[in-house]
Amino acid sequence: MKYYTLRHKDVAHVAASSDGKRAYILRAFKTMNVLLLRGHDGTIPPLSEAVELDSPNVEILSPIPHPRQDVICLGINYADHAEEAACFDKEAFSKDRPDPIFFSKRVNYSQGTGDIIPMHEDICDSPDYEAELGVVIGREACRVKAEDALQYIFGYTIVNDVSARNLQTKHKQWYCGKSLDGFTPMGPCIVSADEFDGIPKLDIRTYVNGELRQSSNTGNLITGIPEIIEILSSGMTLSPGTIIATGTPSGVAMGMDPPRFLKDGDEVICEIEGIGRLVNTVRKSFREADD
Question: Of 268, 266, 275, 267, which Cα lies nearest the Cα of 246?
Fold first, then answer.
């Protein structure tokens, strides 16, 4: 099943679709966060009991426009990305670490496909893209073993971990450079975990203005999804609705020679097999994009 947050006539609705074409409003859930809190107890009604949204004037929002907590991210979780990152700034992106790198990303609002990515050009001179598989937790997870981890996953989505590279390297940690407003587009939907056979191994790609920049497979993660959940839940409780961005493959702008950072008007498409496409356009600021 694919789960969406859709806006129709200025009202946001949680909706579900079995085919990605016909959407049904799930009126029992005011927001996706509410659905995630209740979804594993069997209270999601079948589509036969839902109301079909029959209108062409529907805007696809981020599936979780307002995450309940910061997004948990993994850095340097594809070997090829580790090499290109170290070439850009060895001190900031050293790959000589035996354990996974975790950091968090502040998200006041996550925009969806079709929305803009603001450049924040007054403080950011190096906006970059990172296509990532997002894992959405559906059950409270505490001290979960890797072999049981898949039972705690509600589904998967696409996250573009937009990054201000100058801030990321300047501060010697990644929180500020990752957390600017509008730097976490997500979507277009959450695909329920039961749509995949075990741990998903999915093709992941990014296009900028039609040019293929990133191309890999989520099966190439250094630290796999079950291990990520085991490590995190060993000392912290992962609540329903927790979003984990699992890392990005090589091909980001900072890895090019010379770097090719995003600029005003660029179209960024993050694509993951079986989930869909997250399409956003880069703009100098919110105000200019709205004018």
Answer: 275
Helix (H, G, I), strand (E, B) or coil at 173: coil
Looking at the fold, whether 285 and 167 belong to one and the same domain comes out as: yes
Residues 27 and 78 in one domain: no
Residue 243 lies in a domain: yes
Tally the domains of the chain. Answer: 2
CATH at 165: 3.90.850.10
Interatomic CA distance for residues 243 and 185, integer angstroms? 13
Give the pLDDT band of residue 291 (cuts 50, 70, 90).
very low
Output the CA–CA distances (angstroms, integers) from residue 52 to 12, 38, 46, 104, 251, in the order listed: 15, 22, 12, 37, 40
Q: Where on the phi/psi map is residue 210: left (φ > 0), alpha (ψ -120 to 50), or beta?
A: left
- Structural domain harbouring 34: 2-60
**Token pair in block for residue 250:** 């090589």
Q: How far apart are CA 64 and CA 237, in angstroms?
A: 20
Tokens of 177: 């450079």
Q: What is the pLDDT of residues 185-233, one digit of tens each?
A: 999 999 999 999 999 999 999 999 999 999 999 999 999 999 999 999 9
Which DSSP helix (H) or strand (E) runs through 216? Answer: strand 211-217
DSSP one-letter string for 231-243:
HHHTTS-B-TT-E
- Contacts with 34 (C-beta within 8 Å, 6 or more apart), sequence order: 14
Contact call for residues 283 and 119 (beta carbons, < 8 A): yes
Backbone CA torsion sign across 16, 18, 23, 25: negative
Task: At 272, list the tokens.
Answer: 């993951």
Residue 118: both structure tokens together: 């603001």
Same domain, yes or no, for 163 and 20?
A: no
| Lookup result for tokens 């990303």 | 105
Q: Tell me the sheet residues that pair with 160.
A: 131
